[in-house]
Design brief:
mainly alpha
């Protein structure tokens, strides 16, 4: 093929080709970024972006607040139920305090009569069980989950005071039980008691009396705290109260 023919073919191809940036072209359709026309349009774009970010953050905070509001409501109901159960114990301790004190005085009298070798009738049950396990499982669970940090300050202060006293009450009841164990020596035949047994009973009475006074005072405070938390105090167990208040 001659050089003139080749040139004619090349010119024909060049004339029929379509540029890539025109319709019908084989290349990619590329849109160039529209330039800002002045600072006003630039600031408008920035303000749009900032507003979008602020709205997203605000919505996230609203969702989080709704979540914690629900968690606090659930925790309030669970804590109220747990406190109500514990308050049944405190109501009993307050009502039974005078009876426990009288029973301890009667036990003390029996021990002194026994020490003087005076005739003393056999006793079946010297001191009924007056202790109970006080629960704080719900409180501990919600404290671990950080739910309590979303309570209002006044409510959290009252709850903290209540459960702190609860720990003291559990400790006191344990000590009371240990002191009352010695009192059971009077059961059956008191005449068989040795001087060391009488001494143990005397110490047990004094310790049980001191701890009982403290437990009754704490119980009154706990019921008052519950009242401030809008939790109604329950009545004391009438059957259990009657058993403790009966004469030896």
């Amino acid at each position: 093929m001659s050089d003139d023919a080749r040139n004619d073919i090349a010119e024909g191809q060049g004339a029929s080709s379509v540029p890539a940036d025109e319709p019908g072209g084989d290349g990619m359709d590329i849109h160039k970024a529209r330039p800002w026309h002045g600072w006003r349009e630039f600031l408008k774009e920035i303000a749009t972006i900032v507003c979008g970010i602020v709205i997203a953050i605000a919505l996230e905070q609203v969702v989080e607040q709704l979540h914690w509001r629900h968690e606090v409501a659930v925790a309030r109901r669970a804590l109220a139920a747990e406190i109500s159960r514990n308050d049944r114990v405190f109501a009993f301790r307050v009502a039974a305090a005078p009876c426990i004190a009288r029973r301890l005085s009667a036990i003390e009298l029996l021990a002194e009569r026994t020490a003087r070798h005076e005739p003393v009738l056999a006793v079946e049950s010297v001191m009924p069980d007056t202790g109970d396990a006080l629960r704080d499982n719900v409180w501990q669970a919600h404290r671990a989950s950080q739910t309590l940090t979303h309570f209002d300050d006044d409510t959290l202060a009252l709850l903290s005071a209540y459960y702190q006293q609860l720990g003291y009450s559990n400790l006191g009841m344990t000590q009371e039980g240990e002191s009352q164990a010695a009192l059971s020596l009077l059961e059956s035949d008191p005449s068989r008691l040795a001087p060391s047994d009488i001494s143990a009973i005397r110490i047990g009475v004094q310790r049980a009396r001191a701890v009982g006074t403290i437990l009754a005072a704490i119980a009154r405070e706990e019921l008052e705290t519950s009242k401030r938390l809008n939790i109604t105090a329950p009545s004391a167990d009438a059957a259990r109260l009657a058993f403790v208040c009966r004469q030896i």
